[in-house]
Amino acid sequence: MSSFRRLLVERRSVDLSHYSDAFLARRVAVRQHATGQHSLESYSRFILTEPGEINLLLDALSVNVTEFFRDEVLSPRGLSGVMDFLAGRNPKRPITIWSAGCASGPEPYTLAILFDLRFGAARPPRDIIVYATDINESRLREAREGCYAARSLAAVPPAVLQSHFDPPGPDGRRRVKERIRKMVHFFRHDLATLPPYSGLDLVLCRNVTIYFTSEAKANLVKGFHRCLSERGLMILGGSELLLEMSLFSPFDAARKIYQKKAVGGAVQ
Length: 268
Prior knowledge:
Elements: H1 2-12, H2 21-35, H3 40-49, H4 53-61, H5 80-87, E1 95-100, H6 106-119, E2 128-134, H7 137-145, E3 147-148, H8 158-164, E4 174-175, H9 178-181, E5 184-188, E6 200-205, H10 214-227, E7 228-236, E8 248-252, E9 257-260
Parallel strand pairs: 1-2, 1-6, 2-5, 6-7
Antiparallel strand pairs: 3-4, 7-9, 8-9
Helix pairs in contact: 1-3, 2-4
């Protein structure tokens, strides 16, 4: 796969070096079959001549989680310790959050809803800013639209459906209310590159890196350490291991929540 990786970097400025060879080969084989290409060489030529194919390949490579409130961590109980901690930080500045690898938007919108439920009635009001990034532009377009089918909303409590979503449309889909959509800012970003933010309070990267190489995972965690503010928090997915323990200490180990350490090793 090395020549295929080089080709995409040189001709499409797409870096796939963070994916393992086995995972990349499986996903490329799926796209080869779908496009009628019978070899990696013919698919390599095809991807250079068909502008939309690179996005379809990236879609096949990315992990697309489409459920709101998808597990216990993304719930009022699961985030209670995090929100208690962040509530005690400087009340004059916004709470800033980054959902890295946000797919079509359920995770960052869930975060916005949970923080709105906790801080929306605070006096004085507390601003919440959620940055959400993904490599796939088609999924980002879906996320910005904020419309979701019932299957994506199955775990949302009925009261939250009423308070934070518009009524169902003719197709049965509900849209996240405008005031919540305005809290979330979507951007395209490749996790293989440097983080685009600094001074953040919270970073989530959950079940996105399970097919990354160990080196890519370690570099990503180092990037998260740099972009977090003092004592900032990072939440990983259940399938992801923290390979850089020198940079973080456990905040809630059972939920894979970690706190940034100072460079020397002490908690800031």
